[in-house]
């Protein structure tokens, strides 16, 4: 099952944005 490149890029961007938000909130709370 291979996803189109555009969808994979969108997923990758969403994942990186999500992790960055988690990292920033984690650093702020600690």
Relative helix content:
over 70%
* Topology pattern, helix = H, strand = E: H
Shape: rod-shaped
The counted number of beta strands is: 0
Summary tags:
30 residues; 0% strand; mainly alpha
Structure description:
With 30 residues, the chain is mainly alpha-helical. Helices cover 83% and strands 0% of the residues. It has one helix and no strands. It has one helix at 5-29. The protein is rod-shaped, with a radius of gyration of 13 Å. 0% of the residues are buried. The model has no long low-confidence stretch (mean pLDDT 86).
Q: In summary, what is this structure?
A:
The protein is mostly helical and 30 residues long. The protein has one helix and no strands. Helix content is 83%, strand content 0%.
Topology readout:
Layout: H1 5-29
């Amino acid at each position: 099952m291979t996803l189109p490149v555009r969808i994979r890029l969108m997923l990758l961007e969403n994942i990186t944005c999500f992790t960055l938000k988690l990292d920033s909130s984690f650093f702020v709370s600690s």
